[in-house]
Amino acid sequence: MTSYSISAALRSSVTGPARDLIRQFFATGLTKVLKNRENVLLWSYSQFELSPFLIYQGYVQGKYPLPSTRHKNQVNWYDPEVRGIIPVDHYKIRNDLLRRLKKEKRSSDEERIQIKVNANFRDTILSCTKPRGVKNNTWISNEYVEAGIVLHDMGIAHSVEAYQNGILVGGLVGLSINGFFATLSLFHTVDNASKIAFCYLLQKLKDDGFKLHHCGDVDSWFTQYGMIPIAREPYRKELMLAVTQPVRFTSSVPALVF
Asked: Which of 8, 41, 78, 222 has the most crowded Cβ, counting Cβ within 10 A?
């Protein structure tokens, strides 16, 4: 007898009241162990295989995944009390980065950073998987990459890419659902290349009419762009409004005005 038929037999042998009792037992136990029902829901998400639909569904509900760097094939889902967003109409660019952007205009063709949108999503997200930092690790798993590529093919995931002399040297990937955009990851092999790409993204979100830009943790380096903290309930309201707005992430490269 296969494991499926055994499982089916067990299910058929348990009466309705017994099933309800078992569910209640485990629900109560998980709630006590994980502190509250919100954490139980996040834990239940982590038990599913990471898929394009699950990622899409999670973001619509205000959750976001981070594959574990310690446990292979494990995905942790988060719905924090406070997270960070960058107001689409009121982002900031630091003075040192503004100077770099102005310098770019005077650079030679070989040195100048050229920005493209959705020209090479696959290589951009693969570049985001390369180990970095003192711990020499990355949180982006193969499953996450595969799901991201499918979402890109569907017009949901996007990339803003930085090239120098025809070579991909930086960029970012993100997710758009109507008027909502979430920045997922960035990479660079040339100093400031990802930050320049991010500046173009910020202008692009404003030009395209996006309503909400999610960035994750409130203590990340995104604070230099004017990221502000927002509590869970206000964020959910902003999210509901954003995902119901008919906004499209276009393929145009915005013009930065200094």
From this structure: 222
